[in-house]
Amino acid sequence: MKEKSKETKRKLTRLNPINDAALIRESWKIFQIMAEFVEGFEKLARIRPSVSVFGSARTPADHPYYKQAEAISLALSNAGFSVVSGGGPGIMEAVNKGASEGKSPSIGLNIQLPHEQSSNAFQDIALNFRHFFSRKVMFVKYASAYVVCPGGFGTLDEMAEILTLIQTGKTRNIPIILVNASFWKGLLDWFENTLVPENTISAEDLNLFKLIDDPDEIVKAIFDHYEDRDFEPSEDELEILSHL
């Protein structure tokens, strides 16, 4: 067995020779990633309070979900929140469009993708990312709330990310609001009827989010969350956010 293991290692070494050019390329990517973080920190540090809003890139402009996202973002903007989207088409465009018609900045965190993603024209501040992970940090770091409209894998990814971060204490507790109860019903039933009984989440984790459809009620829920505190993170929360 030991001889076989040694032979396997020798084969792997032959199949995967060290490529100096590849190593150099990977090392230089660190500076590319650093540049994305620096630009994001510099441009977004002054936008608070802000709300990150998510939704499908595939939703057409005449769809009720698009109109709903536009109305929600307009209400948030007029309430004094900078509104942050993924910067692309569909619901992301609706988010930036609604926010741009309000009183507060409309912000897009754009991502370079082989298909689907193209920047919309309604961004007062636009950042461009190559890496999902640096973009995701920007969504979380300055957000006073998350609003999650109907969407696909990308939207689910962002929702699961913030739920996990709050559940594990890796970020501060902010409102998470899911929009359109009928869209989320199947997933939430699975949370309650499968994940909780299987003990993969606790029943209390279901309190991490709310279901609200009305734009004014969404704004109210966010203000209610901060009724006894500032929108700005506390010193302890800043320490937590520094380790995202």
Gist?
With 244 residues, this protein is of the alpha/beta class. The protein has helices at 2-15, 20-44, 64-78, 91-100, 132-141, 153-167, 181-195, 215-225, 235-241, and strands at 50-54, 82-85, 106-111, 125-129, 143-148, 176-178, 210-211. Helix 3 (64-78) runs parallel beside helix 4 and helix 3 (64-78) packs across helix 8 (215-225).
Describe the structure.
By secondary structure, the chain is of the alpha/beta class. It has one domain: Rossmann fold (3-Layer(aba) Sandwich), CATH 3.40.50.450. Helix content is 50%, strand content 13%. The protein has 9 helices and 7 strands. A 7-stranded parallel beta sheet has the order 4-3-2-1-5-6-7, with helices on both faces. Helix 4 links the parallel strand 2 (82-85) and strand 3. It is globular and about 65 Å long. It starts with a helix and ends with a helix.
The DSSP helix count reads 9
Largest sheet: 7 strands, parallel
Topology as a string of helices (H) and strands (E):
HHEHEHEEHEHEHEHH
The percentage of residues in β strands lies in 5-15%
Pick out the low-confidence regions. none
Radius of gyration: 21 Å
Mean pLDDT, rounded to whole units?
Answer: 90
> What structural class do the secondary elements suggest?
alpha/beta
Strand order of the largest sheet: 4-3-2-1-5-6-7
Overall CATH architecture? 3-Layer(aba) Sandwich
- The structural domain count equals 1
* Number of DSSP E strands: 7
**End-to-end span in angstroms?**
43 Å
Q: State the CATH class.
A: Alpha Beta
What is the fold-level CATH name, i.e. the topology? Answer: Rossmann fold
Q: In percent, how helical is the residue content?
A: 40-55%
Large-scale geometry: globular
